[in-house]
TrEMBL record:
UniProt entry keywords in alphabetical sequence: Hydrolase, Protease, Serine protease
Pfam families with a match to the protein in the record: Peptidase_S51
Protein name in UniProt: Type 1 glutamine amidotransferase-like domain-containing protein
Organism of derivation: Segatella cerevisiae
Family, similarity comment: Belongs to the peptidase S51 family.
Length: 210
C-alpha cells in the first residue's frame, strides 16, 4: 500500500492555510522537522523566517535541523521524533549534496515511504523528483555544490515540480525550463499560491486565496 503523503509548494507562507486540510488533523502541538539547509548560503532567504512563522501560527512545534551541521545519527533521531518533515527553498544542488553526504536522503525517503507527511517548499519540492538536473539552468553552481557527483534525487514522485511558475523574478528562467523539458519530462509547474497534494498514488493541485 502506497502511504505517501506530501504537500509540495513554491512559497509556503502563501499556502500554509491549506495545511490543516491536507493534514486531516489538529496541528496544535504537532512537531515539524524544520530543514532550512537549502537556504543556508543564499543571499535571499527570507522565506525561511516566513515559513517558521507560518508553522508557529498553526500551533506547531519546530525542531530545527540543519543537516549540514549535525550528525547522521541526530538527523535520524529528529526525523523519527517529528510528526512532519519540512524542507525549505534555496539552492537545490547544495541541498542534495548535503543530503547525500550525510545519508539523510535515504532517511527522508524512508520516512516518506512509511507515510510521514512531507512538506516541500521550492527546492524542497524539486528534491522529491527522480532527478534535479532539469533545474540546472536555475541555481546550479559547482562552487556551491562541489561534492555533488550525481543529480539523482529522492524519486518518490514521477513528476518534476517547477516552482514559482509565472512569478517574478523567475518568469524567464522557468519558461526556459519548460521550453527545454516539457516534451521530455512530466513537468508540473506551480505558482506561489498553489500546492501539489500527494496522497498515495493520487495528486491534485490546490490553490490558496490570493
Amino acid at each position: 500500500m502506497n502511504k505517501k503523503k506530501m504537500f509540495l509548494c513554491s512559497f509556503f507562507e502563501k499556502v500554509a492555510s491549506l495545511l490543516p486540510k491536507f493534514a486531516g488533523e489538529d496541528l496544535q502541538g504537532k512537531t515539524v522537522a524544520f530543514i532550512p539547509t537549502a537556504g543556508k548560503h543564499e543571499e535571499v532567504n527570507f522565506f525561511i523566517a516566513t515559513a517558521r512563522q507560518a508553522f508557529e501560527n498553526l500551533g506547531m512545534k519546530i525542531n530545527d535541523m540543519d543537516i549540514s551541521s549535525i550528525s547522521t545519527k541526530e538527523i535520524a533521531e529528529q526525523l523519527d521524533q517529528s510528526d512532519y518533515i519540512y524542507v525549505s527553498g534555496g539552492n537545490t544542488f547544495f541541498l542534495l549534496q548535503e543530503l547525500k553526504r550525510t545519508g539523510s536522503d535515504k532517511l527522508i525517503k524512508d520516512q516518506i515511504l512509511k507515510g510521514k507527511p512531507y512538506i516541500g517548499e521550492s527546492a524542497g519540492s524539486i528534491l522529491v523528483a527522480p532527478d534535479i538536473s532539469y533545474m540546472k539552468c536555475v541555481n546550479y553552481s559547482k562552487e556551491k555544490a562541489p561534492l555533488l557527483k550525481s543529480f539523482s534525487a529522492l524519486g518518490v514522485v514521477d513528476f518534476y515540480s517547477v516552482p514559482h511558475y509565472k512569478e517574478e523574478p523567475f518568469v524567464e528562467i522557468n519558461d526556459e525550463v519548460v521550453r527545454r523539458y516539457d516534451k521530455l519530462l512530466n513537468l508540473l509547474p506551480i505558482s506561489n499560491t498553489q500546492a501539489v497534494i500527494v496522497n498515495g498514488d493520487t495528486r491534485e493541485i490546490v490553490e490558496a486565496d490570493k
